[in-house]
């Protein structure tokens, strides 16, 4: 063990255990070993140099290992206290449900953990109490851990001398689990979870106890939340099934939430959903502000909101998918769930919310629905942007903008842990290249139109670019708000150059797309409606009057093709 300089709880200097010279460093392995018995921490072992420590190791080793193990026992007791708080277990039930967990927790620390029934004095009479006897593997020493108050544990010899009146029985760990039956649902949930809890910690739950102080606290919190969510989801399921209410089917039955192979839970159309239908309007269960916060700060924000919610809602939150469950360094589960499931409060917004239903919607690059935040309602709305057949999955897009295939997949993998296999992604190399070229061109067109210069300097070229965008979007199978934006671009070109007639038509098309993806009551639809009704009130109107045309000059009686030619100012039209 390296000598350590840091310890504030004990005097900082002493005599070197090897040579008796004055020394300021002490063995880091046993430093901070807990106090017990007389309440005093064990004496620190000082060394003046690393050489002295090395020379003294054979003498110090046994004591050091013992003290290190005691540190682990005390931490294990902290873990047990936290676990008991989660399930609010009655003490007599503790031995039943904790058996499997304790086996894992004390692996490599204890040779045996036994279930003891002690008789203790109680108000002039006696009562029985369940206690764990933990016999260490590093020394012939045992500790008593009372599940009702696990921390601090007591040395076994002190416990039987001072606390216990008599020991009624000592049974192997798991004895009561197997003889007492009638395990409650929370216990069953925990037992089901143990294998996963251990597997996600590299098969060694005990490693939790060996972490640094700050990592230990964080990991303990993570464990507790994991266990709480498992217990909560089980009781939620049981409550639902006991009431015979199918899980998460809304009254209007537009969708079901059910698992799909390889995708976890998913939202599936309960019947035919026509394009433009509002599938769901949902208030956020949790809101996450956009300003940057460290995971601990975000955790605090989320858990304080959760604590104000009904228990059933809290449970549902913890059933949401957590892509960051095994992240290193660890991320608190509440935060991992938020990162996996948050939907933004508006286009490019950094703040967002967690929605118990909408957060179940999976991604597709050929999504058939769009999410939109309606600030005045304070609700997230999901609209069908294509007709959706009964039984088809309802999907949205998890990305903004026009990203080529590799960028999309890299994002899905790192942020969400999946590979998209939709019809746009699973194509031949040549089709993929065509698609990537289109997407790059779309980015270019967006930038060129968006810089504002071309709108007045080269309006016709700009109008052509807006039309090209619409064609590429159509070829790429993209609809929804991207189409509305392209029509808005065309509107701006027309109105900036004084053409109210064309501006009116573009605004009408933009409005129709906005209504389809965000509803009549959305802010975007309201803006587009205003543009359509009073194009001349737009701030860009008359920047130039190159194309001056009154609003009433929209031609009538033209064929569709002739009308489009007029609209886009193709040759021979004005
Ligand atoms: C917001 S959640 C969606 C609901 C989630 N499937 C569930 O079980 O709760 C995001 C997670 O869903 C999964 N997911 C989303 N889209 C997917 C897709 N296209 N293919 C596979 N998994 C997907 C990923 O595990 C992702 O981390």
UniProtKB/TrEMBL annotation:
SMART domains: SET (SM00317). Residues 16-64 form the MYND-type domain. Keywords: Metal-binding, Zinc, Zinc-finger. Residues 252-399 form the SET domain. It holds the Pfam family SET. GO terms for molecular function: zinc ion binding. Transmembrane segments: none annotated. InterPro entries: SET_dom, SET_dom_sf, SET_domain_protein, Znf_MYND. It comes from the Eukaryota. This is MYND-type zinc finger protein samB. It comes from Schizothecium vesticola.
């Amino acid at each position: 063990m390296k000598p350590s300089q840091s310890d504030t709880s004990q005097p900082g200097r002493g005599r070197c255990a090897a040579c008796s010279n004055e020394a300021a460093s002490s063995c880091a392995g046993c430093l901070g070993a807990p106090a017990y018995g007389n309440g005093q921490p064990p004496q620190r072992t000082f060394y003046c140099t690393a050489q002295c420590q090395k020379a003294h190791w054979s003498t110090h080793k046994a004591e050091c290992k013992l003290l290190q193990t005691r540190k682990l026992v005390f931490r294990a007791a902290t873990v047990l206290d936290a676990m008991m708080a989660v399930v609010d277990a009655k003490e007599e039930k503790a031995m039943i449900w904790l058996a499997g967990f304790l086996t894992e927790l004390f692996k490599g620390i204890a040779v045996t953990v036994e279930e003891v029934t002690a008789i203790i004095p109680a108000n002039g009479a006696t009562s029985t109490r369940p206690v764990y006897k933990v016999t260490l593997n590093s020394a012939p020493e045992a500790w008593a851990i009372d599940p009702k108050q696990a921390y601090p544990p007591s040395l076994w010899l002190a416990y039987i001398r001072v606390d216990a009146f008599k020991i009624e029985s000592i049974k192997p760990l798991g004895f009561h689990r197997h003889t007492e039956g009638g395990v409650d649902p929370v216990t069953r949930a925990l037992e089901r979870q143990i294998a996963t809890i251990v597997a996600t910690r590299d098969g060694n739950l005990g490693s939790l106890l060996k972490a640094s102080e700050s990592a230990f606290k964080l990991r303990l919190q993570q464990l507790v939340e994991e266990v709480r969510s498992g217990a909560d989801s089980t009781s939620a399921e049981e409550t639902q099934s006991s009431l015979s209410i199918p899980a998460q089917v809304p009254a209007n039955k537009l969708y079901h939430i059910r698992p799909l192979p390889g995708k976890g839970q998913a939202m599936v159309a309960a019947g035919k959903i026509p394009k433009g239908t509002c599938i769901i309007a949902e208030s956020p269960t949790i809101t996450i502000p956009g300003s940057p916060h460290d995971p601990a700060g975000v955790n605090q924000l989320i858990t304080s909101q959760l604590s104000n919610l009904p228990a059933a809602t809290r449970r549902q939150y913890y059933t949401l998918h957590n892509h960051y469950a095994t992240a290193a360094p660890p991320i608190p589960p509440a935060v991992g769930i938020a990162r996996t499931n948050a939907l933004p409060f508006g286009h490019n917004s950094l703040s967002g919310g967690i929605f118990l239903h909408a957060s179940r919607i999976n991604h597709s690059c050929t999504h058939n629905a769009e999410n939109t935040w309606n600030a005045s309602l304070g609700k997230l709305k999901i609209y069908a942007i294509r007709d959706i057949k009964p039984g088809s999955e309802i999907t949205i897009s998890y990305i903004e903008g026009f990203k080529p295939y590799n960028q999309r997949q890299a994002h899905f993998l790192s942020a969400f842990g999946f590979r998209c296999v939709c019809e746009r992604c699973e194509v031949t190399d040549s089709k993929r290249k065509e698609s990537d070229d289109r997407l790059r061109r779309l980015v270019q067109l967006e930038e060129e139109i968006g810089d504002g210069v071309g709108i007045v300097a080269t309006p016709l070229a700009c109008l052509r670019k807006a039309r090209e965008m619409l064609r590429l979007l159509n070829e790429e199978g993209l609809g929804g708000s991207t189409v509305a934006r392209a029509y808005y671009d065309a509107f701006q070109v027309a109105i900036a150059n004084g053409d109210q007639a064309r501006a009116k038509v573009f605004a009408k098309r933009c409005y129709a797309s906005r209504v389809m993806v965000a509803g009549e009551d959305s802010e975007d639809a309201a803006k587009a409606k205003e543009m359509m009704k009073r194009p001349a009130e737009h701030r860009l109107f008359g920047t130039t009057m190159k194309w001056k045309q009154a609003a009433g000059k929209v031609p009538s009686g033209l064929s569709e093709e002739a009308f489009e030619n007029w609209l886009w100012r193709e040759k021979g039209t004005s």
